[in-house]
Each structure stands twice: as structure tokens, then as C-alpha cells.
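Sequence, C-alpha cells reproduced for absentees:
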Amino acid sequence: MRWQHTITISAPVRRVWELTLDVEGWPGYTPTMQRVERLDSGPIAVGSSARIKQPGQAAAIWTVTRLEPEREFTWQTKRMGITMTGSHLLAPTADGCRNTLVLEITGFGARLLGLVAGRALADALAKENHGFKKAAESLEV
């Protein structure tokens, strides 16, 4: 099952990308994250991972699976037979940046989880994207 949310941000792609890579800063501007702890050091790259605590969920380890600078950041976590893949897709626009957040769940039980929690997952994507927008648009140039 798949959900996505797209928003236009009045900030350059570079600024939105910097926020995207600052995963430990996410709890400061999105209510969908309580705590994010990098499990490695240095620049984020494919294979980098972080422990994420989200409201109402146990902490999970997310590992970067795809990284294309200023275009795509994708990572995954697996638990109880389900793979969750989260992507941040950025594209320049005339007014700034189009930011698309995607959540895809696959595996045994994915359909049931989608039926039970689909609305909450879609709402979380929207909240997260609005947090990125507010943070990017409030930063000094």
C-alpha cells in the first residue's frame, strides 16, 4: 500500500534538502517524530541508519537505501514481516521546491495495516510535510 503527500515550499531545493538530511533535527519541526538518533557519523549516505521514536510506536531503525542529492532520500525499516519505505522527493519549481513524501508498506500484513492505519499514516505524511514547509520558509536566506 502507498500514500503520498505533495506540497510546494517557497524555498530553494537546497534549503529543503538540508532539512531533509538533518534527520536529528526533524523532531524540532514535525510532530510525527519524538526522537531521531543517528547510529553512525559523517554525511548521510546509502547504508546510514537512525533510531526513530514516533508517537504511539516502538522505536525503529531506519536505513538509507537510496540517496540522490537534492532529489531523493529514501530509507526503510522492517518489523513483524512488514517493510516500510519512506521517501522524500524534491523537485525545483518556479516558486521554490515541490516536496513529495511517500510511504509504502509491503509484506505480510501490509494490507491489514493499511486498512487499519491508512488514514493516520496519510495524516502523518501531511503533518510532516507541513513541518518541512514551515521550517524551510522560516529560515534566513
Helices lie at 13-21, 110-138. Strands lie at 2-9, 35-38, 49-53, 60-68, 72-79, 82-93, 96-107. The longest strand covers residues 82-93. The chain has a mean pLDDT of 94.
